[in-house]
Amino acid sequence: EAGVTQFPSHSVIEKGQTVTLRCDPISGHDNLYWYRRVMGKEIKFLLHFVKESKQDESGMPNNRFLAERTGGTYSTLKVQPAELEDSGVYFCASSQETRLDTQYFGPGTRLTVL
Amino acid sequence: AQSVTQLGSHVSVSEGALVLLRCNYSSSVPPYLFWYVQYPNQGLQLLLKYTSAATLVKGINGFEAEFKKSETSFHLTKPSAHMSDAAEYFCAVKEGWGNTPLVFGKGTRLSVIA
Prior knowledge:
Chain A has no helices and eleven strands. By secondary structure, chain A is an all-beta fold.
C-alpha cells in the first residue's frame, strides 16, 4: 500500500510568486491534514479536511494560503503571493475515519522563498 | 491549550549507550501521546503511541516510552543506541481520540557517536 505522497519535494521561488503544493493521502483515508515547520520551530497544524470539507482551518496563517480537496482525494495548498516567512517544510498527513488516533505523514515539501 | 516541551534540542550519545529523550506535555483532557522520528531526507514515521491502555508502550526499533500522569511526561528510551538511530525525534500530543490535530514539540536531534 502506498504511503502519503507529496509533490514537489523542494520548491524555490521568489517573493511575490505563487506556489502550489500537492498531497496524495493513503487510499481510503478520509482525513487529511496539513502541517508546517518553519526552521527552528515546532511543526504546527494548518488545517484539516474530512473528505472534501474543511473541518478545521484554525491554523492557516492568513488569506494568502488556500487549501482545496476537490472530490475528497488529493489536496492542494496554494500560497499566493509567497512571502519570505512562508519558507519551511510543509507536511501532509492522513488518517482513517475508524483510526483517528494515528496520522501517517508524507515526506514533506521544502519551500524556500527568496 | 495543549503544549509539548522537549528538553534538549540536541542530544549526543555513544553507540551502545542508553538513549533518553525527554517530553513533557500539558493537556486539559486525557491525552493521546506520540513519538515520531524523521530520518535524514525522509518524512515523519510513527515510533510509538500511548492511547490510554498500558502506560509502558513499546515501539519500533527497540524504542519504548512510559506515560507518567503525575509527572505529565512521556519520555522516550532505548537501552542501547545504534548508529542508525541518528535522526530527529518529535513528541506530540492529541486531545482525545476524535478529529483533533497533533500538537508537536520542537524536536530533539539525536547524534550517535561511534
